[in-house]
Design brief:
The complex is a heterotrimer of chains A (272), B (271) and C (314). Helix content of chain B is 73%, strand content 0%. With 271 residues, chain B is mainly alpha-helical. In chain B, helix 8 (219-226) packs antiparallel against helix 9 (234-267). The relative contact order of chain B is 0.17. The N and C termini of chain C lie close together (11 Å). The chains are: A alpha/beta (272), B mainly alpha (271), C mainly alpha (314). Chains B and C meet through helix 3, helix 4, helix 7 and helix 9 of B and helix 1, helix 6, helix 7, helix 10 and helix 11 of C.
């Protein structure tokens, strides 16, 4: 049996500048793959090319096979059918990733509306079920709430509900825990983890949080400047990192620096 | 500010130059007064002596229109100066504190379009250039206050302001040393765009007879007087109107161009 | 700020505006009655008008009297026409109100789709061409555009009447025909402003993170434009419409003058020229009131549509 996701020789160029270089990896259903590396190493570009949402001017080459179908040959309408349906994605900024003008119930229901032929009341029931599942109802958030009324963790849960609504085969999570505090981070991660087990969903997580990666991921892929320097089972990467870059990354995390990613330190402007 | 590769700014400046250079030269030579009346050459067709012909009083249309353009720009510039100075001062005052009173004042300005203010002032005091300038400035004030306040607030939350406050600098000193120099480019952009609006307002007011009174030549007043000649002497209506339009277009484009140049560093964000 | 405190703020604004108008009309140096009647008026007629205007009472009493009358709907009496101001205004609203309404509809109806077209083709030749055209239209003085359109459509092509307003008595379309050119002239620059604003609002909205979220949910390119971005992008355009309203109202005064429409604008100018103080004072107050109230309704609508503004923020 072939793997759920097979990426072969994936390269992405922007204006002839390589962003990703000949990347190959596979991901089985129900497994978790973590992609680690510094900011600017091409992690987010990888996530967006898997979703077919690369910004204008970015050219992907190679193959991305999902259930043995090459995604890079899909037409835009075909992409629209699988996005949100077999492919789900959650983003890193829960503050701005939700539409401020719409109720979160409606936004969660959107995924269902776009990909199912359910009736209005069925969609409503499923939306409520999803909100229960991600722990929003328990937190006292109802479907008529607006994003600005929610905390960061609650918004991330709402985004998760939107991504999980159609039970995707693959969930891509781009640093979705970065903006959360430690407690909420663990809660949300547990939630995603349960889903990978009960629905055999594969998870591709991009993270700076090496503690989280070590605890949850099955495989790890280390990216540096668009090149995969090392990949393998989590245990072997963490216990015996082969590449000096990986060693450096792990060393930094041991000193507790990984929780605040290097390039995300607050940036102050001082007048000249 | 990168102004070299900015076609909008250059086109705008060129349009302004086409009208303003000859207008300033005319003003220097004639004091922007109305050209002499010459009853023998009323409604003259364009000729070497009168490139655009003459008006119903035999006055040279080109000289008349250029003087009118000069007067329009003068009035608009004074109105914009007034609203910029007052608006910046009020905007800075409103930047730190809860803005209730000053922002309420700003809303008041928005409820008094120039025509209404001018109608009140003309009825009470008679037509005057001062009244017209006040009327135009009042309506421009709210936008000026709002923009200054917004810009000042984005600077006041920066950390170096807190640092400088800790170093013992007072509020006035901070506004003068840090805020004002930083918002100066923005104020320039705003003033340029406001000039376009002010020229439009001036033209409308003079057309209605609510602007500066004769004898100084004025494009809006000329349009009101020449309107009946639109069929037999179309140049009399076309030229003053086109002149207003070129001025407004010039200031609009120059303002947009300056704004683009100002925003350019912000737009270079990574995808 | 919730709607109630907004309403309170606008009420205060209305009171301040009435004070400003009252003060301006009492700035008149000397005796308003002699100003109104001119130099060659007899002392008796001046004394009579003096009494009629209530000039023999103190300023605060006069202000209170004026506001009291306004609230009861009594707008005073025109000195020139010797009829109640309210009946004069009521007559004139028949052309002014439809004119402003038509211009507003045209401005939004043309500006929003044009702005969307430009935003959807961002960076292409069609976008740049459209933007250049809008820049040009935005810079045309509306009353001059009115003259040039009269020249073309009335005097040359004889499609539409050049001036005047026959009233609504001769049928709806006869009345409408007379208002088309004035409304278009009034609307063109405002539509250009709306279109440019709509374009930047839509481009700004399309660059936000939640658009990418919607795309990841499976929204198509056009779906995200129409169903996700458009409603958000329209909110600032509504706010802009609130600012354009006073511009349209005063623009109508100028355009009415070009087309000799018997509207409120013409009434105001006649009153200014003839120093008909009660008409000027009450008409200006009425227009300012309309601007403030309509502005309040639009602001309330924006607060209703944008959930973030509906409640107190920390």
């Amino acid at each position: 049996m072939t793997s759920l996701l097979q990426v072969m020789d994936l390269s992405v160029h922007s204006l002839a500048r390589p962003i990703l270089h000949a990347l190959s990896f596979t991901l089985e259903a129900g497994k978790i793959l973590a992609v680690i590396g510094e900011s600017g190493s091409g992690k987010s570009t990888l996530a967006l090319s898997l979703m077919g949402l690369l910004p204008a001017g970015f050219q992907p080459h190679g193959e991305i096979r999902l259930n043995d179908e090459n995604l890079l040959t899909l037409t835009e309408p075909q992409w629209c059918q699988i996005r949100g349906n077999t492919l789900g994605m959650i983003f890193q900024e829960p503050m701005s990733a939700l539409n401020p003008m719409r109720r979160i119930g409606a936004q969660i229901a959107d995924t269902l509306r776009l990909h199912t032929i359910l009736t209005r009341s069925e969609i409503r029931d499923q939306t409520l079920a999803l909100m229960e599942q991600v722990g929003l109802l328990k937190a006292g958030v109802n479907e008529r709430a607006y994003p600005h009324q929610l905390s960061g963790g609650q918004r991330q849960r709402a985004l998760l509900a939107m991504a999980l609504a159609c039970k995707p085969a693959l969930l891509i999570a781009d640093e979705f825990t970065t903006a959360l505090d430690a407690r909420t981070r663990a809660d949300v991660m547990t939630l995603v983890n349960q889903h990978t087990q009960t629905h055999r969903m594969a998870l591709l997580m991009i993270s700076h949080d090496l503690g989280l990666v070590r605890h949850h991921a099955d495989h790890v892929l280390v990216l540096k400047d668009g090149i995969c320097v090392e990949q393998g089972p989590t245990v072997s990467i963490f216990d015996a990192p082969a590449h000096p870059y990986t060693q450096a990354l792990l060393a930094m995390s041991l000193h507790g620096a990984a929780h605040t990613p290097l390039t995300r330190l607050p940036f102050y402007t001082v007048p000249a | 500010m990168n102004t070299r590769t900015n076609p909008t700014l250059w086109t705008g400046s060129a349009l302004l130059g086409i009208v303003l250079l000859p207008a300033f030269v005319t003003a220097l030579l004639t004091g922007a007064r109305a050209p002499a009346i010459d009853v023998m050459h009323r409604y003259a067709r364009p000729s070497l002596l009168h490139p655009l012909g003459t008006d119903p009083f035999g006055r040279d249309l080109l000289t008349f229109v250029l003087s009118g353009a000069f007067n329009s720009v003068l009035i608009a510039a004074m109105a914009v100066c007034l609203s910029t100075v007052a608006g910046t001062a009020l905007g800075l005052m409103a930047a730190g504190k809860p803005p209730k009173v000053i922002m309420g004042l700003a809303d008041l300005g928005l409820a008094f379009p120039p025509v209404l203010t001018a109608a009140l002032l003309v009825t009470a005091l008679g037509a005057s250039a001062t009244g017209e300038i006040l009327a135009i400035a009042l309506f421009g004030l709210p936008a000026q206050i709002r923009i200054t306040r917004q810009a000042a607030r984005t600077i006041l939350i920066q950390d170096y302001i807190a640092a400088s406050r800790l170093a013992g600098r007072g509020t006035v000193s901070i506004l003068r040393r840090h805020v004002l120099p930083n918002i100066l480019p923005l104020l320039t952009v705003q003033a340029t765009s406001s000039l376009a609006l002010a020229i439009l307002s001036d033209a409308g007011l003079s057309y209605l007879g609510l602007g500066a009174p004769p004898p100084r030549p004025d494009l809006g007043r000329a349009l009101a007087a020449y309107q009946i000649h639109i069929f037999d002497h179309p140049l009399l209506v076309a030229v003053p109107g086109l002149t207003i339009m070129l001025l407004v277009l010039g200031f609009n484009m120059a303002g947009d161009g300056l704004r683009d140049a100002l925003d350019a560093p912000l737009q270079e964000r990574a995808p | 700020m919730n709607v109630l405190s907004l309403a309170f703020q606008r009420l205060l604004l209305l009171i301040v505006a009435s004070l400003v108008i009252f003060a301006a009309m009492n700035l008149i140096p000397g005796d308003p009655a002699s100003v109104m009647l001119g130099l060659d008026a007899s002392p008796e007629s001046i004394a009579a008008l003096h009494h009629q205007l209530g000039l023999d009472t103190a300023l605060p009493a006069r202000y209170a009297h004026w506001v009291g009358d306004l609230i009861r709907g009594n707008l005073g009496r025109s000195y020139i026409y010797d009829v109640p101001v309210s009946s004069l205004i009521g007559e004139r609203l028949q052309s002014t109100l439809p004119l402003i309404l038509l211009a507003m509809l045209l401005s939004l109806g043309a500006g929003i789709p044009l702005g969307m077209t430009a935003a959807a083709n961002r960076g292409k030749m069609s976008d740049m061409g459209l933007m250049a055209m809008l820049q040009l239209l935005k810079s045309i003085p509306d009353f001059w555009l009115a003259m040039m359109m009269t020249f073309l459509f009335s005097l040359t092509l004889h499609w539409l009447p050049a001036s005047g307003f026959p009233g609504w008595g001769h049928g709806f379309f006869t009345g409408l025909r007379a208002l088309i050119l004035p409304a278009v002239a009034l609307a063109v620059p405002q539509a250009a402003i709306t279109a440019r604003f709509m374009r930047s609002s839509l481009i700004e909205t399309l660059s936000q993170d939640f658009i990418r979220t919607a795309r990841a949910q499976g929204y198509s390119r056009s779906g995200v434009l129409w169903r996700v971005a458009l409603p958000n992008a329209l909110i600032p355009v509504l706010t802009l419409a609130g600012i354009q309203l006073p511009v349209l109202i005063t623009g109508s005064i100028i355009v009415e003058s070009v087309f000799s429409l018997p509207g409120c604008g013409k009434l105001l100018l006649e009153a200014v020229n003839q120093r008909d103080l009660p008409v000027v004072q009450n008409l200006v107050m009425l227009i300012v009131t309309a601007v403030i109230i309509l502005g309040f309704l639009l602001a309330a609508l924006v607060r209703f549509l944008d959930p973030r503004l509906g409640e107190e923020r920390p």
